[in-house]
Amino acid sequence: MKQPLRKDLEPVAASFIVKELVEPHFDPNWHFHPHYQLFLVEEGTGTRFIGDSIKPFGPGDLVFLGPNLPHLWRSDQVYFDKSSNLTTKGIVIYFAEDFLGTDFLEKQEMTALRQLLNQARKGLEWTGYTRRRTETALKNLTQKSVGFERVIGLLNLLNDLSHATDYRHLTSPGYTNTMKPNETDRMQLVHNYVLGHFPDDLSLDTVADLAGMTPPAFCRYFKTRSNKTFSEFVSEVRIGHACKLLIGGKLNITQISFESGFRTLSNFNRQFKDITGQTPSGYVKTYREL
Questions:
Q1: R_g over Cα of the chain
Q2: Residue 106 — very low, low, confident or very high, per pLDDT cuts 50/70/90?
Q3: Among 48, 63, 75, 219, which is disulfide-ready with 79 (CB 3.0 to 4.6 Å)?
Q4: d(CA 89, CA 75)
Q5: Predicted local confidence at residue 177, as pLDDT
């Protein structure tokens, strides 16, 4: 049986949930839920899909998502190999908007927190000092038993994030989730196919057939659901893979271009600049300076 697109957490008595995740790979299903989610990757690499944002992830990746924002941390293919001994680890917090009561966030003292939660609806990520400080706070939260100290710990963490300035928005300004809970999982099929075949020449006819649609209907469907064309989506997946290879430092740019599905170096360089705003060599330099 196919997994539903929308996920609901199991009811718990506590006001919020803190989980330590240790699995062979992260949940491979494209989904959304009615809770806020703060997620830190401790171990594992792959491609992160949030709304219309596609980026590589690795240890230290810190993201805050608002309710009903579709997302997927897709581990690299090697994590799905049966012979692999690799493990992914992460810490995740889930909470509802009224986790401390229906009127709590309406108080004057909660203005900054209210603004943070509103921005999270578009997805947020932090870097630098805030990311390191939050990583420590999350680990401390996992050590606290359910009770008053854990609630205070979460509020202190959210307060720190609400005043931090080293953040980036993830989805584009015009993005909205148009998916419905009762839709089929066509987008899941498309994601899986592209992630498994992006180094190859992808056929629109093949993907449309996989989704059970004609190519023109599929193009309209995909653009409505993802806020980008299918070709733009494929390019971002390929560039995301190229970013991981650049960071790894084992291949030269020409090899990375081919491994990522580009047949000419000029096309690779042009699309890399369009998507990341940097040249491949500039991207590596920026990463090493973080």
A1: 20
A2: confident
A3: 75
A4: 11
A5: 74
- As a whole number of angstroms, the distance between CA 11 and CA 94 comes to 12
CA–CA dist 201, 209 (Å, integer): 16
In this structure, the dihedral spanned by the alpha carbons of residues 166, 65, 272 and 235, taken in order and rounded to 10 degrees, is: 180
Amino acid letter, residue 124: L
Sheet containing strand 46-50, edge to edge, reads 53-57, 46-50, 71-75
Map out the domains of the chain with their CATH numbers. Answer: 16-169 (2.60.120.10), 186-289 (1.10.10.60)
Q: Which residues of 45-84 are buried (b: 16+ CB within 10 A; e: fewer)?
A: bbbbbbbbbbbbbeeebbbbbbbebbbbbbbbeebeeeee
Q: Are strands 71-75 and 124-126 parallel, antiparallel or unpaired?
A: unpaired
Mean pLDDT for the stretch of residues 208-224: 91
DSSP per-residue codes, 178-237: ---TTS-SHHHHHHHHHHHHTTS---HHHHHHHTTS-HHHHHHHHHHHHSS-HHHHHHHH
Structure tokens at 17: 């949930």
Facing residues of 241 across strands? none
**Chain segment 174-210, per-residue pLDDT in tens:** 677 766 655 546 787 888 889 889 999 999 999 999 8
Closest CA to 112 of 153, 172, 62, 164: 164
pTM for the full predicted model: 0.73
In Å, the largest CA–CA distance within the chain is: 58
Query: Cα–Cα distance between 7 and 108 in angstroms, integer?
Result: 33
**3-class DSSP state for residue 23?**
strand
Residue 59 is predicted with a pLDDT of 94
